[in-house]
Amino acid sequence: MLATRPRTLPAAVAPVLVGTAMAIADKNFVWLPAAAALMVALLLQIGVNLANDYFDYVKGIDTRNRLGPPRVTQSGLIPAKQVKAGILVAIILSVIPGLYLASVGGWPVILIGLFSFGAALAYSGGPFPLASHGLGDLFVFIFFGLVAVCGTYYVQALHLTPLVWLMGAIQGLLITAILVVNNLRDIQTDRRSGKRTLAVMIGERGSRIEYLLLLSTAYAIPFILWLGGRSSVWVILPVFSLPLAISLTRLIWKSAGGPVLNEALASTAKLALIYSLLLSIGLILSFK
Fold first, then answer.
1. What gap in Å lies between CA 264 and CA 66, rounded to an integer?
2. Beta bridge partners of 133
3. Rounded to 5 degrees, what are φ and ψ at 130?
4. pLDDT confidence of 71, banded at 50, 70, 90?
5. Are 258 and 185 in contact (CB under 8 A)?
6. Per-residue pLDDT, 258
7. Which pLDDT tens digit goes with each residue over 88-146?
8. 108: buried, middle or exposed (CB in 10 Å: 19+, 13-18, 0-12)?
9. What pLDDT band is residue 66 in, cutting at 50, 70 and 90?
10. d(Cα 198, Cα 133) in Å, to the nearest integer?
């Protein structure tokens, strides 16, 4: 359970919720592909978490000075070989519902699956780990936002709309904010180990500004849709999660970093899930 990092799993659930809500709103909801998409998302998220745990250990990034929650490989709780096997198991298990989705959606779903597997492994591993070259934020935005929402909608509707892409962008912003907190917390240890995350490149102040911009944009988009007449007032339902977003932003700006950001990370994941649930309800009611 510790290795799967359950506090990060809302990052997998939230985009599927929104993609499915769009399918319901457009009268394209099909429950079995929606359930299969959720299973794939959760299993790939677990696979990514295990891969981060394993590769950050073998590359010497995770040490006893780590400020985040214990990593099972570095702490010796699970041997590295078993963690590596766990990565393979998670990916293989994700193939089972993935094959069903491929039978429903055809070659676009197969391409999405192949790219998702590649990104999951390349995030921390391989000769050019994305997370160590400042590309983690971009790939989280793409795969946890655009790919997750659009893929969930596509396997139910078999087409995409501009609004679905926009909802994917909102999710990408929210899930990337989770990563920003993680990298802000680890900025010193990452810098010492040579892991060049975007946070290391732009510094603590830049990371705090990035967090603010990500959340601000995510909250602004529904208002723009409403004021522009593209949706009813229900689409701004996520505003009820704004107090939590403001509280977290203040915490991150006042925090000196370090372990205190562990709770901010978990709370940002919770914010993403709450926002997404409210947005999903709003979308369904807006296009009822």
1. 17
2. 196
3. -60, -45
4. confident
5. yes
6. 66
7. 999 999 999 999 999 999 999 999 989 988 888 888 777 788 888 899 999 999 999 99
8. middle
9. low
10. 8
Instruction: Please tell me the total number of residues recorded for the chain in this structure.
Output: 288
pLDDT at 162: 95
Where are the chain's structural domains?
6-286
3-state secondary structure the chain: CCCCCHHHCHHHHHHHHHHHHHHHHCCCCCHHHHHHHHHHHHHHHHHHHHHHHHHHHHCCCCCCCCCCCCCHHHHCCCCHHHHHHHHHHHHHHHHHHHHHHHHHHCHHHHHHHHHHHHHHHHCCCCCCCHHHECCHHHHHHHHHHHHHHHHHHHHHHCCCCHHHHHHHHHHHHHHHHHHHHHHHHCHHHHHHHCCECHHHHHHHHHHHHHHHHHHHHHHHHHHHHHHCCCCCHHHHHHHHHHHHHHHHHHHHHHCCCHHHHHHHHHHHHHHHHHHHHHHHHHHHHHCC
Alpha-carbon distance 225 to 232, whole Å? Answer: 8
| Sequence-distant (≥ 6) Cβ neighbours of residue 28 within 8 angstroms | 153, 156, 157
Residue 243 CA to residue 255 CA, distance in Å, equals 18
Residue 164: which residues within 8 A CB-CB, separation 6 or more?
A: 19, 22, 149, 150, 153
Q: Which residues contact 163 (CB under 8 A, 6 or more apart)?
A: 22, 230
Structure tokens at 81: 């070989």
- What CA–CA distances, in Å, run from 136 to 5, 23, 123, 162, 264? 18, 29, 7, 25, 19
The token duo for 166 is 């926009």
CB 165 within 8 A of CB 150: yes
